[in-house]
Amino acid sequence: MDIAILLPFIVLIGAMFLMTRSAKNKQRQMMSMRDQLQPGSGVRTVGGMYATVKEVHEDTLLLEVAPGVHAIYAKNAIGAVLDDTEYNRIVHGAPEFDEEITAPDDASSLTGTADDGDDADDDGKADKIDLGKGEDADAADDADVVDDADEDEKKNGGSAKK
Asked: Which long-range contacts does 99-102 make (Cβ < 8 Å, 24+ apart)?
């Protein structure tokens, strides 16, 4: 038999072996995480519900899904164990940052005004904002207006209204 014929089969079997191996490792990690659950831990179920562990049994957990509301879940239903800061941020809406972020009441502090003196000329007027049109573009626009008036005058026989 030729090795070229067997090579695709060998590669396919090797790929299947690697995929099942990584899936087994992931399953083993999830089992160890579920076995290490303790009362008071914040968890997220596979359905997306956030709860606090109250009691741990052999195959089940007693979860508090809301204050005073308890439910029994299978250990396999736990998708992730969350650390305290992440659980409090998600469930209780605790801020991510310690310092409070404030926004100004108006945009003048962001854009600057003529009172700042930064963008004011000597005469106290604020500088013009450059919108990409230079002096050459202004002169060309004026020339186009004059040309349009001349064309109207020629079409109407010299009686263009100004």
From this structure: none
